[in-house]
Write a structure and sequence with these properties.
The structure holds 2 protein chains of 2 kinds. Helices cover 28% and strands 28% of the residues of chain A. Chain A is α/β, with parallel strands linked by helices. In chain A, the strands form 3 sheets. A 7-stranded parallel beta sheet of chain A has the order 5-9-4-1-2-3-10, sandwiched between helices. In chain A, strands 13-12-14-15-16 form a 5-stranded parallel beta sheet. Chain A has a 3-stranded antiparallel beta sheet with strand order 6-7-8, with no helix packed on it. In chain A, helix 4 packs across helix 5 and helix 6 packs parallel to helix 9. Chain B is built from 6 helices and 13 strands. In chain B, the strands form 2 sheets. Chain B has a 9-stranded mixed beta sheet with strand order 9-8-7-10-6-1-4-5-11, sandwiched between helices. Chain B is an alpha/beta fold. The chains are: A alpha/beta, B alpha/beta.
């Protein structure tokens, strides 16, 4: 069987999520091709060709693919599926947007956000905000799968696959791109960061969130996250949100400050290697998953932590 | 202009799901059930469009057991005009649910469908996109703002790293993200009024839709528990442990 992996990228750089999805795909087959769909994305395709174990890279370019329009992705991928038995896409907001369209067009189920490949037709996926894991066996001829990248190791580089250009499908007639406002940040991206510093509702205001969380994140070279409560209260933008309804992260180190640890937040960060919680409420549920807990008011604890980091040469 | 709002009855947002000891599923006996929070946001958005005079009729639809009728009553209490329950005790997959909605849409001919981006039980995030595909309608998922005028919907979407704005020709499917709005609480008079609104029940079999499952659930298990760690006394302790014990600094 042959498997298609759809690359995660921003038209300029290939994202690590692609490497992780290749690892998941290796559980199904050794014959893996990568599709890079975008615009001006030749460098992305060249980077994808370096992933070990990849047979070839397909590059399709158009304005609509560059804008990530779901209809354009469907038009491109569905005909390609004549050559593949499965298609795997990283479960980013982009992947979640178009992958179900491929499934519906092929009249098959989508197997969403898998965390384990048991065999070529059997997969494990979280349900109920990660409070249960479901093992499902697919009876469909073609498998359409999204992959939760954080749980898979990134495939190594060192390959030298060929890059083949293929035509994009016609532009979608009824969907029109207006514009895009991407947040520019010098900090690492939340979903791939080695360290994440997150703030919760205890911060109390947007000013306090910026004043407390950001300097600590910058000192550690970390990405900034937030709980849903902090986002809902307007202390942090929505794309900072870690949790079942936001981003799922699994950094080396996750520092939760003033976060109580609601189920939906834990679902987004419990696979982190080391979890640190700073909260003045000793009974907060976050302490049940934290490797290191500091029961203290963030107002005193964070400045002390900054000093201790400085003393430790950070 | 007519809006169709699909809603789903799910375990209440604040209840922790527990896996059955026999690993056949999640225990829903005697558990509080509510409208899926994203569906609630979709209903609220439709009601706001009606209050602005953009929408004239809101039809809520649900696929599920008889008790899903209560969820539809909640939608009627928030402000939907009438409701349709497609009754079944089967647990349908997103593709099957999309096919059921397609059959309802063929009867109702709405100009716009607003629905939640995902249900908090199956967490698939797929039904809206699948419905758009099989109808060949444009889609705008994960909406955080919606404007409807002149036969088009302008939708601001939550994407990785920021926001994207799309314009889609109607009829279209819009799926609601968390920040689209904050749903109102239904007032007591509106709850009373909702009891008198029309709720039509259709048997799933009467629609002639293929809803056979494509996935077989082999087992449902609890995720591995993360062992609790230790408490540290000071920030300096914490840094020393992170550096020397955990090796992450």
């Amino acid at each position: 069987m042959a498997v298609l992996v759809i690359a995660d990228h921003d038209n300029a750089t290939l994202k690590d999520n692609t490497h992780k999805t290749v690892t998941a795909a290796l559980g199904l087959s050794k014959d893996i091709d990568i599709l890079v769909a975008g615009q001006g994305a030749k460098a992305v395709a060249d980077a994808a060709a370096k992933i070990s174990g990849v047979r070839k890279v397909l590059l399709a370019e158009s304005a609509e693919l560059g804008q990530g329009l779901a209809e354009a992705m469907q038009g491109l991928v569905v005909p390609l599926m004549a050559n593949y038995d499965a298609v795997l896409t990283p479960a980013t907001s982009q992947g979640k947007n178009f992958s179900p369209r491929i499934a519906a067009a092929l009249d098959v189920a989508q197997i969403s956000e898998i965390v384990e490949v048991v065999s070529a037709d059997t997969f494990v996926r979280p349900i109920y905000a990660g409070n249960a894991l479901e093992t499902v066996q697919s009876s469909d001829g073609k498998k359409v799968i999204t992959v939760r990248p954080t749980v898979f190791q990134a495939a190594a580089e060192g390959g030298s696959a060929s890059v083949e250009s293929i035509p994009a499908a016609a532009a979608p007639a009824k969907t029109h791109f207006v514009d895009q406002q991407l947040v520019k940040s010098a900090r690492p991206e939340l979903s791939g960061a080695k360290i994440v510093v997150s703030g919760g509702r205890a911060l109390g205001s947007s000013e306090e969130f910026h004043k407390v969380i950001e300097p600590l994140a910058d000192k550690l070279g970390a990405a900034v996250g937030a709980s849903r409560a902090a986002v809902d209260a307007g202390y942090a933008p929505n794309d900072y949100q870690v949790g079942q309804t936001g981003k799922v992260v699994a950094p080396e180190l996750y520092i939760a400050i003033g976060i109580s640890g609601a189920i939906q937040h834990l679902a987004g960060m419990k696979d982190s290697k080391i979890i640190v919680a700073i909260n003045k409420d000793a009974d907060a549920p976050i302490f049940q998953v934290a490797d290191y807990g500091l029961v203290a008011d963030y107002k005193t604890a964070v400045p002390e932590l900054m000093d201790a980091l400085t003393a430790a040469g950070k | 202009m007519k809006v169709l709002v699909p809603v789903k009855r799910v375990i209440d947002y604040n209840v922790k799901a527990r896996v059955k000891p026999d690993q056949t599923g999640v225990d829903l006996a005697n558990v509080k059930m509510s409208m899926n929070p994203f569906c609630e946001i979709a209903v609220e958005e439709a009601v706001r469009l009606k209050e602005k005079g953009v929408v004239t009729e809101i039809v809520a639809v649900s696929v599920g057991p008889a008790q899903a009728g209560e969820t539809l009553r909640t939608a009627l209490a928030i402000g939907a005009d009438r409701a349709i329950l497609v009754q079944t005790t089967d647990d349908l997959e997103p593709l099957a649910v999309a096919k059921v909605f397609k059959a309802i849409i063929a009867e109702e001919n709405p100009d716009l469908v607003i629905m939640g981006k995902q249900a908090i039980d199956g967490d698939n995030n797929a039904t809206g996109q699948m419905l758009a595909t099989i109808l060949d309608w444009p889609q705008a998922t994960f909406a955080s703002a919606l404007e409807v005028s002149g036969g088009k919907a302008k939708v601001t979407r939550e994407v990785d790293g920021g926001l994207q704005t799309l314009e889609v020709d109607l009829p279209a499917i819009v799926t609601a993200d968390l920040r689209l709005n904050e749903p109102r609480y239904a007032s007591l008079p509106n709850i009373m009024k909702a009891k008198k609104k029309e709720l039509v029940i259709k048997e799933l079999a009467s629609l002639g839709v293929d809803t056979a499952p494509r996935l077989k659930v082999l087992k449902v298990t609890e995720p591995p528990k993360r062992g609790g760690g230790i408490k540290v006394e000071t920030a300096a302790d914490l840094v020393s442990k992170l550096k020397n014990e955990a090796g992450v600094l």
